[in-house]
Amino acid sequence: MRCSILIMVGLLFSGSASAQTTNIAICGSSEGHGYYHHAGLVKKKDAGWVKEKISNGKTVLKHLGKNEFDILVVDASGSIWSAKQDGSTVIPLRKTQSEIAILHITIKKVIEVYNFYKEKDGSLKFDLLQNKSGDWLIPKSSVLTGSCSSINF
User: pTM of this prediction?
Assistant: First the structure.
């Protein structure tokens, strides 16, 4: 069973699972800040800014073909998640020689903007702006950033 999971993870992130898919960005852990809204189950004393970190996370942006993308995430628990397989909408917002921005809207009404970019010194980075609001029991907004091992613009 564990071997099957490892093979699936390898295919998922290698870009070789399908001849048409290409990994655009492969990124690792991220950290930043989240703001918990005084709404839903969040009490006034618990609302506000907190530091956030996903130490063992992995984010992969895949190009599936003509202007179609998927975002794959391995979270801190090791769970693999695909935006497309979850029924989410993934929309490219802009692309330049050194940056690509993607809008991701989940079926649960979470709104995320991923920005994958190359800094002046050649460092490869990504930012994640996330908003969980509306009907969420614990609404929050987050800004996270992390490093990427590769980005193919």
Answer: 0.84
